[in-house]
Specification:
Blueprint lengths: L6 H4 L19 E2 L13 H9 L11 H11 L6 E4 L2 H12 L5 E6 L4 H8 L3 E6 L8 H6 L5 E7 L11 H10 L5 E5 L14 H7 L3 E6 L12 E4 L2 H10 L7 H11 L2 H24 L11 E5 L4 H10 L2 E2 L1 E3 L7 E5 L3 H11 L5
Parallel strand pairs: 1-10, 3-4, 3-5, 5-6, 6-7
Antiparallel strand pairs: 2-8, 7-8, 9-12, 11-12
Helix pairs in contact: 2-10, 3-10, 4-5, 4-9, 11-13
């Protein structure tokens, strides 16, 4: 008998990446299964990354100094409150590894980001999923009730991936006030730039006044750097320091650091592109609603189509048309499809295909 894998690892659920799209009639193919940005990198990013590639024989700056300075200036937060990783999911892994161990509990809404149970179980801690409330959003009262003396962290995903709604600022403030200070409240805001609800949570304000609140963000979505993998957290200095200590050395690559700095300088183009994606999102919501579907509030770059037992057949119908969407099939009431907002032609095909789906 060979070495035994840790029980916590052997029992991990599998993270399933979005699948590429098959060719539909006429050879069309759209991948709307990974919440990717349909636009190429922002102006100046490819050039900056190419220049940085000339230094690929050197290790990256392990301290992410220039990137930290640029982000600190952009967000107006102290540099010692920032920590980076290869995507916000990596930062979450580092954070939980730094604070959680066997015997601890981590509370999160479900259905939500499918990396949560994996990240929690890797530490040896116990995942505590709490069903979503009406409107496919977090039931903050139920999440608060799930907090016990063993709870080490609560994960709030806003907008919630994959269902779409964003949490309200006043509700999150009240939640943070009701949770013991010893509990980490992690606000995962990977889709922050797409939020248009004026009442939506403003986590930067909350982190400034509560040392147990951590904000996660990424450059993969709105900034279009999914292929380079850079995310970060904003937290109290001791927490950010712990994340940096747990992080993989030299994790953020040389071209990725250069791309982030260039992306932060291209804010005007960023907002223009985000505006186009939001407009397409609203068009998809309106079209799917007109087709008879009850679509939850969509605040990310995706829409949620609750499909229940028809989830897989719906996904197969979209695939046959040349559109790969993301089915979530568990055999429970939370089954449905997440459809990324893509280029207008892809969104047109989504609406055309959805109109013929069996209700």
């Amino acid at each position: 008998m060979g070495p035994m894998v840790r029980a916590a690892v052997a029992g991990l659920p599998v993270y399933r990446p979005g699948r590429p799209a098959p060719l539909g009639p006429g050879g069309v193919s759209y991948k709307l299964s990974s919440n990717e940005n349909p636009f190429p990198p922002l102006p100046g990013v490819i050039e900056a990354a190419e220049i940085a590639c000339a230094q690929l024989n050197r290790y990256p700056d392990m301290g992410n100094v220039a990137m930290t300075e640029a982000l600190s200036a952009k967000l107006a937060v102290a540099e010692d409150r920032l920590a980076f990783g290869t995507g916000s999911v990596a930062v979450l892994y580092h954070l939980l590894q730094a604070f959680c161990e066997r015997g601890d509990e981590v509370v999160y809404a479900w259905r939500s980001f499918e990396a949560y149970p994996i990240a929690v179980q890797l530490t040896g801690a116990t995942p505590v999923p709490v069903p979503l409330g009406p409107g496919w959003t977090h039931d903050l009262d139920a999440l608060r009730a799930a907090v016990t003396p063993a709870t080490k962290a609560v994960l709030l995903c806003t907008p919630n991936n994959p269902t779409g709604p964003a949490l309200r600022h006043d509700d999150v403030l009240a939640f943070v006030a009701a949770v013991p200070d010893r509990v980490l409240v992690v606000i995962d805001e990977a889709y922050a730039e797409f939020v248009t609800d004026p009442a939506a949570v403003r986590p930067m304000e909350i982190t400034a006044g509560h040392d147990n609140v951590v904000l996660l963000r990424t450059f993969s979505k709105a900034y279009g750097l999914a292929g380079l993998r850079v995310g970060f957290c904003v937290a109290a200095a001791p927490i950010a320091r712990a994340v940096r200590a747990a992080a993989l050395p030299f994790g953020v690559s040389v071209p990725a650091q250069a791309a982030v700095i260039a992306s932060l300088a291209a804010e005007e183009a960023l907002f223009e592109r985000v505006g186009q994606i939001v407009a397409e999102r609203e068009r998809m919501v309106a079209g799917l609603s007109s087709a008879g579907f009850d679509i939850p509030a969509a605040e990310g770059n995706f829409v949620w189509l609750a499909a229940g037992p028809r989830t897989q057949s719906y996904a197969d119908t979209f695939a046959a048309a040349g559109v790969m969407v993301r089915p979530y099939v568990s055999g429970d009431r939370w089954d449905g499809l997440r459809i990324t907002v893509g280029e207008p032609e892809a969104n047109d095909l989504v609406l055309l295909t959805a109109a013929d789906l069996e209700r």
